[in-house]
Automatic annotation (TrEMBL):
Subcellular location: Mitochondrion membrane
Protein name: NADH-ubiquinone oxidoreductase chain 3
Job description of the protein: Core subunit of the mitochondrial membrane respiratory chain NADH dehydrogenase (Complex I) which catalyzes electron transfer from NADH through the respiratory chain, using ubiquinone as an electron acceptor. Essential for the catalytic activity of complex I.
EC number: 7.1.1.2
Lineage: Eukaryota, Metazoa, Chordata, Craniata, Vertebrata
Catalytic activity reported: a ubiquinone + NADH + 5 H(+)(in) = a ubiquinol + NAD(+) + 4 H(+)(out)
A GO CC term assigned to this protein in UniProt: mitochondrial membrane
Record keywords: Electron transport, Membrane, Mitochondrion, NAD, Respiratory chain, Translocase, Transmembrane, Transmembrane helix, Transport, Ubiquinone
InterPro entries reported in the protein's UniProt record: NADH_UbQ/plastoQ_OxRdtase_su3, NDAH_ubi_oxred_su3_sf
Species whose genome carries this gene: Parupeneus multifasciatus
Gene Ontology molecular function terms on file: NADH dehydrogenase (ubiquinone) activity
Similarity comment: family membership: Belongs to the complex I subunit 3 family.
Top class in the EC scheme: translocase
Membrane-crossing residue ranges in chain numbering: 56-76, 88-108
Membrane topology type: Multi-pass membrane protein
Length: 116
């Protein structure tokens, strides 16, 4: 048995054991307070199924996009160690320009305005 097979076998066995333990170990004692839609101490006034604003999702997606941009550009200072640092700089600049143009477009379309 080689090393990869051993590691895969251990991972599958450990996953199965953890799944079984997490299913059987917790004590399930639901009471009416825990089963209510709000657990903050207030009585529900309306429906718990109110729709979210699409503006909220747009701002959340923009946040994730720019967060991903930071993660992609984080190793940029080590790009000068490559054989062709100019191409690294050009690609990073292209990413920044594209995201900046997208932000300007969203700003001009009013996608970042909270009040209507």
């Amino acid at each position: 048995m080689n090393l990869v097979t051993t590691i895969v076998t251990i991972a599958i066995a450990l996953s199965a054991v953890l799944a079984v333990v997490s299913f059987w170990l917790p004590l399930m004692n639901p009471d009416p307070e825990k089963l209510s839609p709000y657990e903050c101490g207030f009585d529900p006034v309306g429906s718990a199924r109110l729709p979210f604003s699409m503006r909220f999702f747009l701002v959340a997606i923009l946040f994730l996009l720019f967060d991903l941009e930071i993660a992609l550009l984080l190793p940029l200072p080590w790009g000068d160690q490559l054989s062709d640092p100019l191409s690294t700089f050009i690609w990073a600049t292209a990413v920044l320009v594209l995201l900046t143009l997208g932000l300007i477009y969203e700003w001009l379309q009013g996608g970042l305005e909270w009040a209507e």
